[in-house]
Amino acid sequence: MRRRRTLTAVVAALGIALAGLTSGTAQARETATDDATALAPNFKAPFACGEKWTYSHHSAEVRRALDFVRSDGGTTAGSAVTASAAGTATRHSQPSGAGNYIVIDHGGGWQTYYFHLQAFSVPSGAQVAQGQQIGTTGSTGNSSGAHQHYEQLLNGVGQNIHINGAALPYPPVYGQQHLTSDNCGGGGETNFSTWGSGVNVRADAFLNSPVVGTIGGPTRVFVECQKEGDTVNAEGYTNHWWSKLRDQGGFISNIYIDDPAAKLPGVPIC
C-alpha cells in the first residue's frame, strides 16, 4: 500500500512538472511573439501620403495578406506603391501568381511584399527609404483587377499587419475599413504632388534632354532640388524652373508640380 501511494505521488509530481513546462513554453512563445512585434519596424501604409484606401482579406489569400484599393476618388491602377519601411528592394516576377512584385528586406528577419505591380520604380538591390515609390499599382499575374496585395513577414512567416504599431482588422470585403496614409517619406527631399497626364521626365532641365520616364497621372513625388532651364509653355502657364525628382531619376517642369509658386518654396537649388 505504501508503494502505491509513493508511485501515485511521483506521477502527480511529474504531472505538475509537465504542466509547468507546457505553461512555461506557451509563455515563452507569447513573450517571443511580443518581443518580435516590439522589434518590428514602424511600418507605414504602402501607398502615398494623404491617400485613403479600403482593404480586405479573403479566405484563399496567401499568408496574412491584405488587398488595398483606393476609396478617395482616385484611380487605383497606376497609383504609387511606397515602401512601408526602409530597406533593400528586390524585383521579382511570377506571371502565374504574384505577377510583378517587390520584396523589401528591412533587417532583423522582417520583409514586406508588394504584388501585382503594373511597373517597377526602382532597380533590384536598391536601398529605399520609407515613403519612396517602388512601383505602381496594377493587376499583373493572377489578379482580377488592379489592387495592391501587401504582406508583412518575419523569418518567412506571414504576420498580422501592423501600421504605425497598431494591428489592422481583417474585413472580408472592401468598404468596411479604410486607411489614410501618413507615409510621407523623409530625408532632405520635399514632398509634392504632380498633376496632368503623360508628363515626360527628362535627364536635365532642357526640352532637348533625353526622356528617361513618364508620369502617367497625378503622383506623389520627392523633389531633391530645382534649377532654371528651358522655358516651358503648357496648360496656360509659363515657367522656366524645373524640379529634380528623386524616384523618377530626372527633371520635370515646375508647371506640373501642384504648387502655385513658379519657384517651389523650401526646395534648394541644384
Automatic annotation (TrEMBL):
Coiled coil regions in record: none
Molecular function GO terms recorded: metalloendopeptidase activity
Endpoints of the signal sequence: 1-28
M23ase beta-sheet core domain mapped to chain residues: 75-157
Pfam families from the UniProt entry: Peptidase_M23
Keywords from the UniProt entry: Signal
Name of the protein described by the UniProt record: Peptidoglycan DD-metalloendopeptidase family protein
Annotated source species: Streptomyces tardus
Upper lineage: Bacteria, Bacillati, Actinomycetota, Actinomycetes, Kitasatosporales
